[in-house]
Amino acid sequence: MNESIIKLTEQWVQEQLSHDTTGHDWYHIKRVTTLAKHLSIDAEVNMNVIILACLMHDLADDKVVESEEAGLASITNWLEDHDVSPEDTKHILSIITTMSFKAGKGDPMRTLEGQIVQDADRLDALGAIGIARTFTYSGHKKQSMYDPTLRVRENMSIEEYRHGQSSAIQHFYEKLLKLPERMNTTQGRVLADQRAEYMRTFLEQFYSEWSFE
Ligand code: ADP
Ligand code: NI
C-alpha cells in the first residue's frame, strides 16, 4: 500500500459525501482521520489500515448509502481494485462493520487499529463540534431542539428511548454523554472527558436560558 491509494480514496469519498447534510460530510471524515492519526502517535499500528478505515467508515451507513450491504460491497470492490491485500481488506471491513451500530450491536473492537478509529469517530460526536452535529442531524430528522416534557435522565435504557420521541438535547443523554466511559484508548478518554465537560457546561447554560425569568 502506498500514498496514492490514500489520495485516490480521499477523492472517491469526497465525491460521495460532498452533498451530505446529515452530519456525515467530508469534513467529518477529515476530522476523524486527523484525530485517529493523533491517537496513533507512539502506537505500533498499521497506519494505512487506520487511515483507509477512517476515510470509508461512513460509506456503509444506511443514513448515507442505499443499504449497508451495498456500501460494504462497494468498499470491498474499491479495495480489491486498488490492490489492497486481502488481509488488510478484511481488517478494514471488520472495523467498519463493528463501528456500524446495527451490525456491531456493541461488539468490542478487537484490534488497536479498530479501537483508534472508533475513538476518533466518537470524539467527533463530542465537544462543540458534537453539539453542532447533533442539532444538524436533529433538524434533518425533523426532531425538536428540546422538549421539556420528555423525561431526560442519564441512566434511561435504550429501549425506553426507542419507544419515545427524541430531541437534540435528549440525544446528549441517550448516547453522547455516555461515550467517555466507552472509549478504548487512554488518550481518547482524556479528550472525550474534556469534550463532555464542555457539553455539560453548554447544557447548564441552555437550561438557565430556557427557564429565564
Ligand atoms: P457517526 O458519523 O459519528 O458514526 P452517527 O451516524 O451515529 O455518527 O450520527 C451522526 C451525527 O448525528 C452525530 O453527531 C450524532 O450525535 C448525531 N445523531 C445521531 N443520532 C441522533 C439522534 N437521534 N438525535 C440527534 N442527533 C443524532
Ligand atoms: Ni462517522
Automatic annotation (TrEMBL):
It comes from the Bacteria. CDD domains: HDc (cd00077). Residues 25-126 form the HD domain. InterPro entries: HD/PDEase_dom (IPR003607), HD_domain (IPR006674). PROSITE patterns: HD (PS51831). Pfam families: HD (PF01966). PANTHER family: HD_PDEASE DOMAIN-CONTAINING PROTEIN (PTHR33594:SF1), SUPERFAMILY HYDROLASE, PUTATIVE (AFU_ORTHOLOGUE AFUA_1G03035)-RELATED (PTHR33594). This is HD domain-containing protein. It comes from Alkalicoccobacillus murimartini.
